[in-house]
């Protein structure tokens, strides 16, 4: 990743124009040709520096539901619990974390009612208590990280 | 409310925006729409908050942010909105939420995600949050992810598959 890639990443995290030729518009701002910007962007996506480029949809605004939940997985059952939880298609992310609550996952469902159903099913299959921590309030979300 | 055409546009952009000189035209053609209609609907969805933004999502680790901490704080309920707003405004906090406590085991109700290229950088950020919260901080912890066990889009939903979750 060179300085130009960093500039592209930082610029494109701030948003993208909705107009006929948006890449040309951004390229001009950056002093590049349209084709050069498209090539660099493709390379950054292909090598995994960018995981996505495009509209970021808000699932809740579309009628879906999200929650953050955690379990205390006993060490000797950690892999088994991981497999059970990951097998649920509603589990979008799952992270091991350094705490007594040592497995944290995000549930994403098409309707709010499916959150509780999924939690109940996970509790039944794992025998563990699921600590459900849906957001009461969102103060800030900004995925921007400076390259 | 979203209609069928909105949903078709959402579906068509699930894997991202086309890397073509006229991406909105590229989206419009197979749907039998005009580029102007696609642009108008994307603008409306952005104004309505259905689209948070159009842009790039970097892989934290590839940019060198290897220390990603979920900081959690126990804040008196009557002050949490005011303090949550302030913590969310810190430029290194990527997400900030009020979430429910689960006493007695889990007393933390304010969650703020921080990201750094070194442990030192993250420690300094945590210190800054602690200073901002002052005496209202009744306890805190930082949970680092030791392993990604799963990371996918929204597989449960055919309609909304691959929409990015808003929590990290």
Give a written overview of the molecule.
- The complex is a heterodimer of chains A (about 150) and B (about 170).
- Chain A is an alpha+beta fold and about 150 residues long.
- Chain A folds into two domains: about 5-45, no CATH class; about 60-130, 2-Layer Sandwich (Alpha-Beta Plaits).
- In chain A, about 40% of the residues lie in helices and about 25% in strands.
- Chain A contains five helices and six strands.
- Chain A has helices at about 5-15, 20-30, 35-45, 80-85, 115-125; strands at about 50-55, 65-70, 90-95, 105-110, 130, 135-140.
- Chain A has a four-stranded antiparallel β-sheet with strand order 3-4-2-5.
- In chain A, a hairpin with a 5-residue loop joins strand 3 and strand 4.
- In chain A, helix 2 (about 20-30) packs across helix 3.
- The longest helix of chain A has 14 residues, at about 115-125.
- Chain A is elongated and about 60 Å long.
- Chain B folds into two domains: about 5-45; about 60-145, 2-Layer Sandwich (Alpha-Beta Plaits).
- Chain B contains five helices and five strands.
- Chain B has helices spanning about 5-10, 25-30, 35-45, 80-90, 120-135; strands at about 50-60, 65-75, 95-100, 110-115, 140-150.
- Chain B has a four-stranded antiparallel β-sheet with strand order 3-4-2-5.
- At the A-B interface, helix 1, helix 2, helix 3, strand 1 and helix 4 of A face helix 2, helix 3, strand 1, helix 4 and strand 3 of B.
- Strand 3 of chain A pairs antiparallel with strand 5 (about 140-150) of chain B.
Features:
heterodimer, A: about 150 residues, 2 domains, 4-stranded antiparallel sheet, 6 strands, about 40% helix, B: alpha+beta, Alpha-Beta Plaits, 5 strands, elongated, disordered C terminus
